């Protein structure tokens, strides 16, 4: 007996490719996130980190901002490694398609396990995990958990929940911009953004040097893609597929011209879920138009589980919906302890001047000696050497480099930064591995200092004359020469 013959609307049989993209894509991004954690968490937040988790737990009395395995299972670096590797293995299993071959509860449990693991990390990650794409990944892992396996059609209500997530991402960012700096309204924002963004990529300078009329068109295109197109995701058929393609293309431009960790990459994955199999077949005829035709009917128990989850998503939608239309719109905010149903948005204002904190050291006995040789520490992603080509790091997330960008914007001095300078004076090997260049080759400097420089991209003529990609001018001293005391 076909228990669900009366629920024909429930099955989205024309979205089999969308399910594959969602499950494998979100899992692949989770692997990157867990790998980033494995490489950086212990140095930044571990037992001997810049902001140790143990201190956070003691300071809060265990009352963290959300549930975490490290609340009940006392933190240690070894346990952090176990959590990160577990997430990597689970993500790799989904990318390979193994859990999707079983009954729908198998991928459900795998994704929920990844959600619990990564949520546990983010909750104790403090400022190093205070980025919008952290909660975005948590919400994406939880949402796609209910997409089922290859044996039944993708559930339409879960796909709608994914489209609602994309809507919040795009429309929320668009509203933040319209309500934010004047530069978004007078169409000049992208005359600055490519130069002043947190971590430029290999093509950022070329994008910055494009003519002003092009940058104005960029802003107009951004407003259309974020304020109008997201509504079309909910229109069935080719309209939704076209809207998704527009969002994907705008995100690919951002990927080409900057480094925003996995924010743009996961947006591409999520937005592609609105493209139907028919649209894929139209664009690439080699792709069959009826990939989901061989799936069996949806089991009654699975339909009930999905509908219960759908009701939960509906209830979670109220807070972010209200936030979108309030005058005091919150950006990258969670309304519950589980990081579900979040508010998103970025770059409500664009920085006009790029200030970089440059960290230097010397082994001279007198730091005020005019002949003292001050040598600069090199970061992996943060601009430093004016001749160096910015690298493409995204979707990988360089957390230290990102927070160094925030310091000149009002966070001039934070506890983690003081401890970072202390680690440099100690020549702490794990900390030095976060950098691209240690000018003292593992030895201790006698003194360190921090100076602020104004950076700007060179013009075409300046580049031909100097082969430098940046021009920098001293803006002032932030931290005078400091040394270790017994």
Automatic annotation (TrEMBL):
Compartment(s) where it occurs, according to its Swiss-Prot or TrEMBL record: Endoplasmic reticulum membrane
Record keywords: Endoplasmic reticulum, Membrane, Transmembrane, Transmembrane helix
Main location: endoplasmic reticulum
Keyword Nucleus belongs to the record: no
InterPro entries, sorted: LMF, LMF1/2_C, LMF1/2_N
Ranges where the Lipase maturation factor 1/2 N-terminal domain occurs: 129-281
Lipase maturation factor 1/2 C-terminal domain ranges (all copies): 341-480
Pfam family, one: LMF1_C
UniProt key word Transmembrane: yes
Bilayer topology annotation: Multi-pass membrane protein
Membrane-spanning intervals of the chain: 80-99, 105-124, 156-176, 231-256, 300-321
Family that this chain belongs to: Belongs to the lipase maturation factor family.
Descriptive protein name: Lipase maturation factor family protein
Species assigned in the record: Agromyces larvae
């Amino acid at each position: 007996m076909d228990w669900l013959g009366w629920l024909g609307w429930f099955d989205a049989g024309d979205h089999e490719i969308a399910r594959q993209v969602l499950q494998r894509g979100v899992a692949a991004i989770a692997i990157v996130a867990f790998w980033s954690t494995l490489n950086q968490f212990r140095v930044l937040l571990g037992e001997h980190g810049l902001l140790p988790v143990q201190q956070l737990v003691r300071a809060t009395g265990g009352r963290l901002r959300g549930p975490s395995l490290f609340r009940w299972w006392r933190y240690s670096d070894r346990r952090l490694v176990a959590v990160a590797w577990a997430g990597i293995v689970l993500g790799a299993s989904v990318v390979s398609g193994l859990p999707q071959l079983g009954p729908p509860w198998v991928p459900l449990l795998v994704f929920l396990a990844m959600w619990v693991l990564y949520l546990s990390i983010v909750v104790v990650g403090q400022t190093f995990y205070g980025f919008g794409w952290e909660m975005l990944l948590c919400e994406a892992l939880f949402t796609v958990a209910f997409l089922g396996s290859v044996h039944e059609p993708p559930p339409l209500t879960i796909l709608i929940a994914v489209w609602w997530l994309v809507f919040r991402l795009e429309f929320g960012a668009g509203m933040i911009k319209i309500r934010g700096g004047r530069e978004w309204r007078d169409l000049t924002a992208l005359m600055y953004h490519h130069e002043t963004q947190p971590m430029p990529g290999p093509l950022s300078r070329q994008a910055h040097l494009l003519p002003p009329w092009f940058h104005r068109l960029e802003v107009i295109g951004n407003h259309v893609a974020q304020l109008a197109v997201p509504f079309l995701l909910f229109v069935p058929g080719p309209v939704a597929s076209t809207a998704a393609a527009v969002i994907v293309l705008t995100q690919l431009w951002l990927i080409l011209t900057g480094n925003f960790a996995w924010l743009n990459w996961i947006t591409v994955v999520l937005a592609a879920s609105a493209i139907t199999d028919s649209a894929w077949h139209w664009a690439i005829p080699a792709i069959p138009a009826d990939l989901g035709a061989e799936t069996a009917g949806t089991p009654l128990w699975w339909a009930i589980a999905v509908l219960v989850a759908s009701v939960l998503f509906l209830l979670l939608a109220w807070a972010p919906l209200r936030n979108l239309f309030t005058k005091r719109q919150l950006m990258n905010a969670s309304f519950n302890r589980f990081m579900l149903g979040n508010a998103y948005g970025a770059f409500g204002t664009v920085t006009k001047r790029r200030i970089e904190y440059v960290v230097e050291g010397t082994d001279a006995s007198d730091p005020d000696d005019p002949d003292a040789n001050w040598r600069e520490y090199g970061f992996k992603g943060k601009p430093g050497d004016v001749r160096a080509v910015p690298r493409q790091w995204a979707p990988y997330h360089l957390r230290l480099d990102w927070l160094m960008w925030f310091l000149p914007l009002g966070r001039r001095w934070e506890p983690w930064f003081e401890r970072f300078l202390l680690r440099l004076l100690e020549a702490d090997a794990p900390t030095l591995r976060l950098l691209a260049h240690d000018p003292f080759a593992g030895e201790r400097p006698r003194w360190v200092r921090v100076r602020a420089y104004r950076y700007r991209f060179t013009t075409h003529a300046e580049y031909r004359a100097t082969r430098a990609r940046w021009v920098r001018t001293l803006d002032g001293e932030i931290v005078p020469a400091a040394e270790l005391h017994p």
